[in-house]
Amino acid sequence: MSLVSTAPISQDGLATPRRYLAIALILATIVLVVLDGAIANVALPSIALSLQAEAGNTVWVVSAYQLAVLVALLPCGALGEIYGARRVFLIGVALFTAASAACAFAGDLSLLILARFAQGLGAGAIMALAMMNLRSALPQHMLGPIIGINAMVIAISSAAGPGIAGAILSVTTWPWLFAVNIPLGIIVLLSGGVLGKMQGTNRKLNAKALLANTLMFILFFYGADQIANAPANGTLLIAASIVCLVILLRLERGSTAPIIPTDLLATPAFRVAVIASISCFCGQMLSYIALPFYLQHRLHMTPVLAGLYMMPWPVATAVIAPVSGRLANRVKTAWLCATGGALLSGGLLVAVLSPSDPRGIAFVAGTVIAGLGFGLFQTPNNRILLLSAPKARSGAAGAVQGTARLLGQTLGGISMSLIFATLPLSAAPEFAVAISAGCAAIASLVSLSRARYELAGASEDRPR
Question: Does one domain contain both 186 and 298?
Answer without folding.
Answer: no
